[in-house]
């Protein structure tokens, strides 16, 4: 069975083609600059030449049309015909409180995604364009949506509510939603397998650290708390996002530099984090290089990133009471050994003991590794994440009618 | 030696008179509604009748003048003559980065406090009025200022910096300052005594939970991290303040309800916290009563307050690596057993084990008690705070020329 996964932004689309009988991604691709004068597509099918070219995609529809053309192309493609595609799985960043799991797209679902646009004005419109384009181009193929926020809907109210006027929640849905849910679901299932435990019994702390970064406390296999909030701005120090800070900073800076609240918000999302502290770098490799060369801002930025992760690990240990494993995933989590080291040092008092050598050896992004010491009560794993696999899994399960809470199913 | 301590707000003044030879507060008083049509004063001297009356104080000067009159009054007072007063200690909420310790007031000090007004627009102007009034009324008596923020100036940069554009810090001093420093200093010294350790060697987590509430991580006797930030808004769930939340909530609510950033800020400071969640209560006694009667909002508010404290305990254990004791202080910390219980339950994994019965027995605000189990690696103390005593101590030490870093001195 062939499944296509699509992750559409307002001007971009990432996609993968899965041969589900083999559980294998047979093609990976990326379209950029949809709607601009020159668009760009990069397509890599298994054992085939890479297709990398400039094209013109005025809307998502032309982009999806071209994706179908290239993946069925004899030289660059991976499947015979577009009729081979049995379903399309779409990634949705913000499902609000409406979605607690993946669903087959219906008119009602489209309406719900639209209703949640105020919560994710930068993301949901692009997702909708992607789904509608797919429905136009592949009218007979079912579509499934996989929401980043669905995973987090098991949080207890004490974890997801803010201490703000109650009617901000009842009237305007102001609460913690959480993101990176698909990654947390995947790594939770893998961690349970590595621990040899039923997913229902695992307590975990997962650090998904990429450009965006968030952490999740997992209790009995499901989400109990997370570091991102109403939006992906809160929590950890990220590439260009500030993470947590005194909310009063916004008013203070709005007055100090005569900025609008939107301008301050943009600065916190785009000019803060590692970029803000170093003044120049987003990528941890650059920050590390700078730090090793003695650049004080780089040393500080790295220290802040590690310290913030460490403190959230502590807070989640307190929240969970018992933790089977701490997991690192995503670009930085899988590859940046110095960040893991800085975050894990000194946590022995809570039963978390890293093995320095094992940590140093885990950086390929290609293997699941254990980096805790043998006598560490809490295990520490590095697990490469695979959000597209979850999208394909959910899509297949919904198609086959055996979709269920993730703790209840195995493939 | 007689010392007067003054804690002036923009329209109020709390004061105490100390007989320093006996280390004893011999008078406690409060002036309210300075500048309004009818002001109010309450004065209670040791073994004397309470004076409680409406008066008229157009400015702080008349208020201080009247305080001197009443404390030297034969029926209501505690000292013979205003000449007995050897120094006045003033509380200052925000000393910015300028003040790392208490100082004798000079013109330069007044200027520095004034320069820090933008950081504490609601507090520092009142403090300045109080000092100037005292200088007018008692021109020959030295004044000392004790800053809430001074204690926190030992924080490492990774703890006090935010991941925002660097120039927000260099140009506008945007960083974490911390508050309740005088209380943290006092409880640190008491905890060291209770532990039988040199203050230089203690690692502590202190929860100062009153109407305002913040926590402090103490490493080797000095501040390492804290939960309040640029202002006292951040961190714990408070009576009417939100504590931490996704900073993006401000922009979202500004748009949703067409509020200015100042209006959102005011809502977060005055209509949030327990008041926001319950819709009606600030006082924990009311919240507890409501919760016991089954009011869902009260149950949630209480759960949120406890859960937030618990998570910060965890984050500070991670930050410190080793913790000798957890300390509860201020109104709620000293008396609200259910809040302590909710915050401490389930922390055994990090060596913090409460004794339920001991916890239940500690609620008088009159004794230092230990509420941890005998086999708890980390001790848990309830320590009634005494900020005025620290103000008097610092004032005397500065007067005597033996003031020093607090870890170096004993009285
Ligand atoms: N070898 C490496 N060492 C350290 N950091 C790395 C390495 N490779 C990638 N990274 C970090 O991973 C980040 C990207 O992670 P990724 O999970 O792909 O991000 P996202 O999906 O959020 O865009 C880069 O910004 C970089 O900082
Ligand atoms: N017996 C009690 N049980 C529970 N909470 C109490 C009790 N007494 C006082 N409190 C709480 O203490 C708070 C005041 O604490 P305090 O330290 O005096 O506050 P402030 O920050 O104003 O100095 C009250 O709002 C109330 O919630």
Number of strands of chain A: 14
Give me the secondary-structure category of chain A.
alpha/beta
With strands numbered from the N-terminus, the spatial order across the biggest sheet of chain A is 5-4-3-2-1-6-8-7
Oligomer: homodimer
* Strand and helix order of chain A: EEEEEHEEHHEHHHEEEHHHHHEHHHEEH
Strand content of chain A: 15-25%
Mean pLDDT of chain A: 96
Instruction: Give me the Rg of chain A, rounded.
Output: 21 Å
Pick out the low-confidence regions of chain A.
none
Helix content of chain A: 25-40%
Q: Measure the end-to-end span of chain A.
A: 14 Å
Main pleated-sheet profile of chain A: 8 strands, mixed
* Overall shape of chain A: globular
Provide structural commentary:
2 copies of one chain form a homodimer. Chain A is 37% helix and 19% strand. With 411 residues, the first copy, chain A, is α/β, with parallel strands linked by helices. In chain A, helix 6 crosses helix 15, helix 7 (248-256) crosses helix 8 (261-270) and helix 11 crosses helix 13 (337-344). The longest helix of chain A is centred in the last third of the chain and has 25 residues, at 296-320. The first copy, chain A, is globular, with a radius of gyration of 21 Å. Chains A and B meet through helix 4, helix 5, helix 7, helix 8 and helix 9 of A and helix 4, helix 5, helix 7, helix 8 and helix 9 of B. Bound molecules: adenosine-5'-diphosphate (2 copies). Residues 210-212, 239, 283-285, 330-332, 335-336 of chain A line the site of one adenosine-5'-diphosphate (ADP).
